[in-house]
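Project outcomes to date are best conveyed with an example. Our students and postdoctoral researchers have been running inverse folding experiments weekly, and each run begins with a structure described purely in C-alpha cells. The record below, which covers 164 residues, was selected by the lab manager from last quarter's runs and is presented without edits.
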C-alpha cells in the first residue's frame, strides 16, 4: 500500500536521489528510521527500482539523439530482435510498439557518422531487421524520467482511504 507519505518521499527522491534520509525525514515530518523503513519497503516491492546518475550526453560526446523505428520479420509478439537490439550500447531504450513498425529505439551517438555506423553495422546486422526509419532530434525541450507523483492524486491501487 502506498500512501501520501510514500508519495512525498518518492517525489523528493525523484528530484535528488542523493538526499540524506534525515533531510527527507524533516520534509515529511517523520523520524529518519521511519523513512528508511518506508524506503526499504518501496524497494522490496519494486516501486523504487534503483538509483541512477544522469550524465551530460553532449559533454561526453553523445550529442546526437535519434529515434529509430524498426520493422522485423519476427512473429507477432516475439521479442528476440528486441533483446539483440537492447544489447547495442548506443541503444538506450527499446519499446515494442503497435502499428506498422515493431520497435522504437532511443539511440545516442556522437555525430551523424557514428549514427550511420550504428544503423549499418549494429542495428542492420540483427538478422530479422527488415527496415528502419530514423528521426534525428534537433533540440530537446524536455527530457525526464520523473513520474508525476503528487500526494493529492487519487490512491494507488490497493491504498486505503478515509473516504466513505
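After processing, the design step wrote out the following sequence:
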Amino acid at each position: 500500500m502506498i500512501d501520501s507519505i510514500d508519495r512525498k518521499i518518492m517525489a523528493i527522491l525523484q528530484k535528488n536521489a542523493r538526499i540524506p534520509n534525515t533531510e527527507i525525514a524533516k520534509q515529511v515530518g517523520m523520524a529518519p528510521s521511519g523513512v528508511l523503513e518506508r524506503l526499504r519497503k518501496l524497494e522490496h516491492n519494486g516501486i523504487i527500482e534503483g538509483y541512477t546518475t544522469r550524465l551530460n550526453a553532449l559533454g561526453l560526446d553523445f550529442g546526437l539523439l535519434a529515434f529509430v523505428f524498426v520493422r522485423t520479420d519476427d512473429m507477432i509478439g516475439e521479442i528476440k530482435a528486441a533483446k539483440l537490439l537492447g544489447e547495442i550500447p548506443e541503444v538506450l531504450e527499446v519499446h515494442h510498439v503497435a502499428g506498422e513498425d515493431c520497435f522504437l529505439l532511443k539511440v545516442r551517438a556522437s555525430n551523424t557518422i557514428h549514427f550511420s555506423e550504428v544503423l549499418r553495422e549494429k542495428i542492420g546486422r540483427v538478422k530479422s531487421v527488415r527496415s528502419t526509419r530514423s528521426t534525428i532530434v534537433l533540440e530537446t525541450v524536455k527530457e525526464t524520467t520523473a513520474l508525476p507523483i503528487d500526494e493529492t492524486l487519487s490512491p494507488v491501487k490497493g491504498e486505503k482511504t478515509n473516504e466513505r
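The chain is about 30% helix and 20% strand. The longest strand covers residues 64-72. The training component of this project remains on track.
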